[in-house]
Design goal:
This protein is an alpha/beta fold and 255 residues long. 26% of the residues lie in helices and 25% in strands. The protein has a domain of 166 residues: 3-Layer(aba) Sandwich (Rossmann fold). The strands form two sheets. Strands 2-12-11-10-5-3-4 form a seven-stranded mixed beta sheet, with helices on both faces. Strand 10, helix 5 and strand 11 form a beta-alpha-beta unit. Helix 1 runs parallel beside helix 6, helix 4 packs parallel to helix 5 and helix 6 crosses helix 7. The termini are far apart.
Amino acid sequence: MRGRRALIVAIAVAVAVVAGVGTVLYIHGGHGSVKSSGCRALIAYALQISYDYRPVIERIAEILRDHGCVVDIAIGRAVNLSLYAHLNRYSIAILFVHGGKAVFRVDDRVYRINGLFTGLPWSPRYEELKREWIATRAFPFNSTKAFLAVLPHFFDVYMKGRFPPNSVVVVAGCYALYTPYIAEALFRHGLRVFIGWPGAVTPHYLFNATEKLVEYAVGEGLGWIKAVEKVNRVVGPDPVYHDHIVCLVNAQSRS
């Protein structure tokens, strides 16, 4: 792709994207079990820029620790390029981050793209990353403060090595699955399961649904696929934007 366009981002009360109600999309089939032995987990909390849901973060960390996981917590500016480049250190990565999307036209072709915020303010020193479609300048909804957001190509360029077996990345934010490109980039590094929402989500629903997801998957031992199904059955879709949580599974990863 050529041309430039800032990523249009949205969270919480952004205009929703119409999306299907699919629960689990099997890229190649497969399972999504949770094995706590040797588990290293990450909770990244860049949404604290706008919302304070620390009790939920602490509860999720407690569930993971109770089932044998060593838990790292990254807050604010600690959610940075290095953290994203090393997501494959973790068996479980739960990312409370703003997400965004853009739709644009180049040479009569329409492109869609989505990205994940860091906790880093935008700086001109990131312009080269923007030119290379690795990262971009992004604005939270209803804010004039710009942040650095990574694009799918970031993971192809900067992530080295593979994820552990049966690994999962949960993106608790808007537009993580507006396109499948972020998930596919992580799948190329052996990620097993990618979970997120295609469109906008409201904060209270987002944190509640993610806490329930971890409780079902890890606390109750259902595994991630069945946990997604239970969240959609018990918690339901976002009450404002009506998107359900979606799970993509990569059967080509190590199980």
